[in-house]
Specification:
Order of helices and strands: EEHHEEEHEHE
Strand content: 25-35%
Strand order of the largest sheet: 2-3-4-5-6-1-7
CATH architecture: 3-Layer(aba) Sandwich
Shape: globular
CATH class: Alpha Beta
Number of helices: 4
Structural class: alpha+beta
Length: 164
């Protein structure tokens, strides 16, 4: 039986709207400056498995490479005690938009107070990108139940809702 999926589109139009969490709880975040599509694919599977991230699972390596190694995509990895704990991808788009293309924590790191800090860093990173006018993201009812709340708590506002 198919269930309805509601998608929420959120945006932030000013860096000053960010309600950041400054406490890292030991989480370390590093930009992945040397692009390796295989690593993005690994992170997508690691973080997305429990949330039905399936749209890219069938992609051949060439498609992954074109996506993840494109100049408009940047990836940051969160580590905790040396282990990959989560990540985010930011995609620069036309007109000054930056999309938080992917964001999330690995299953072992959910519920440890990392999500708000990681999202704060993702939004800060987006605003530091040259020409950013708006940061946006979408989440849906298949994602972690706290995702929408986290986006709103950081200062993002819903601008569209769709149910399929």
């Amino acid at each position: 039986m198919m269930r309805d999926v509601t998608t929420y589109y959120l945006e932030m139009k000013s860096a000053s709207s960010l309600n950041a969490i400054g406490e890292s709880n030991g989480l370390q975040i590093h930009e992945c400056e040397i692009k390796q599509f295989q690593f993005n694919k690994f992170l997508y599977q690691l973080v997305g498995k429990d949330w039905e991230w399936i749209d890219k699972l069938s992609w051949p390596d060439e498609q992954w490479k074109a996506y993840a190694e494109n100049d408009n995509l940047r990836t940051w990895i969160a580590y905790y005690k040396g282990s990959p704990a989560g990540y985010y991808e930011l995609q620069q788009q036309n007109g000054g938009d930056v999309e938080i293309a992917y964001f999330g924590l690995a299953p072992k790191f959910i519920g440890r107070g990392f999500g708000g800090y990681l999202l704060s860093q993702a939004i800060k990173s987006a605003w530091k990108m040259k020409g950013t006018q708006r940061v946006w993201v979408h989440t849906c009812t298949l994602d972690h139940p706290g995702a929408l709340k986290n986006y709103k708590a950081r200062g993002m506002e819903v601008y569209r809702v769709e149910t399929e």
